[in-house]
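Researcher: I'd like a structural prediction for the single chain below. Treat it as a standalone chain; there are no partners to consider.
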Amino acid sequence: MSFDDRDKEFGNKKSDEEDFYELKHRSKDDNDDSMNDFLKDEDFELEGYQEEEERSVESEGLRSKRIKQRKKRRKTIFKIAAILFVLVVVAVAIVFWLVPWVKNRFFSETEVPEGERITIPESLVLGDDINIVFSCAGENLLEPEISSIIFSSYYRGDNKLISLCIPPRTLMEIPGFGTEVIGRSVNIGGMDLMDLTLEDDLGMDIKIDYHILFDVYNTVNELGGIDIQMDEEVSIKNYDDGSTFKLEKGSNLIDGAEALNFLKYFSGVEEGISVEDITKQKLIVDAIIKKMVGGSEEEFAGNLNLVKDFMETNSSMEERLRIFAVFSSLEPENNYVYSLDVSSKELEGEDVVYVPENISKLAEIFSRESTPEVEETGDFTEVVKITVLNGAYDSPGAFGLAGNTSETFKGLKFEDGGNKYEVIEIGNSDNVYEYTQILVYSPDENKLAAASDIKQVLGTGSINVREDEVTGPDIIVILGKDYLTLVTEAGADEEAADQLVKIIVLNGEGTGKLARTVTDIIESHFNSGEETVVMLEPEDADNYNYTQTEITIFSSRESVNELAQSIRERLGTGVIKYSEDNVHNVDISVTVGSDYTNQ
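Model: Treating it as a single chain, here is the predicted structure.
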């Protein structure tokens, strides 16, 4: 059908009903073709559009008004939020800066469950004397490798602690198991078996009250490291990889691995390190206790809570708190430390082991005698006999310490010109002492006054009154490492100001004018450019039977040691010795023997 024919067909329609009928009966195939004719432009025209437009114009003012109200509400909300934010910031500032205790009390970094919190008792005083063993090991406390054993006795009346450092590889009789190194007793039967072994083998009729075994690695790391004070620079071996790390003279912050290597290095296993240096191990234990106690009760409780799982002990928490608090507050002069006197021994299939020596001396070291404070007394008037012992003989620069100090006492006079002190003996002590001891025997007012004078002269020292009888001296002065430090520091300035070395030549062979000839040779050799030595008048030796020339040093100055080496080279013979018995008050004495005249 053509377009025109279709147009004619629709044009003949007379009514709406006919149109409806036609659409209703149109076939489905014709729908698409007729859609465009069905939806005409006029069908989309909206009746009442004009009225709507008029209503829109009328409502425009109302909409603008609502928008303005909405904006106003938003500004109000923003202002309130800003004010609230400022108030929050101010409140936080007050809590965290103006009231620090609020932060510490309610905002601590580590929340400890109520049932696990440690309560500090009102009193942290030890009510009784106690014996305690501190042992140190690595991370495995079930099968510990013991690197340190320290037996300590605390005497409440004197508020002093005496400690004995024992090499872990010391042979002892372990009850029920025979002879074995003491360190292995823990692996065999735990710390209780070590306690029994020490009670039996130290020979002091003691009962050990407590023991504490530290996992040093984790304990130190949990505490954030510990600070130890070294009196000299030292290089420590790292047993994990064979390297070394250096600790400087003075303060050193070390971690758990370094603390563990330090203990092993000074445990007696390292060749070339004196077993007496095991006393340095107590630096680690003291530093752990000091760091644990901290500066407040809150810090103390928090630290102990951090490390309580890294120690094995038979003490209750309250007992531990008291022990650590008291030990950390001890004055240095009341914190004594000794090393067990041992000799080395080789066993097949074993590294070096040690055998205890002179066990009987331990009873004297751990004497429970009271040490009363010496009251201020007047000047003493009668001469006092003293013995001066070098208790720091294992330290560099300690040669001549007792001899030089005895000369100081020999030079002290009463107002009438008489000597205050008679030095009847000088030498080395039986043990190494960290702190100077002034032991007063059969005390009376005169001797106690002399002890106070000695302490003032030395600038250090702890006065201990002994009631037992001693043949010979009224007072024994044991010079500790603390005194050596004072002397070294003072001597540095003196040495810089006075470099001259005093020398005396003694005739030990008998040839006439031999000592004078050697004196002239030494003086012309060393004073040819500038004066470096002072030659005293030569004398005869105690006898003429010296077959070997002896060059004896009485001073710890490095320059004196170097000069002695030069004297031996110039003379072409001689053996260098060290001595405390400086009867001529010189730096070097040269006793000429027959080996010199026979060259």
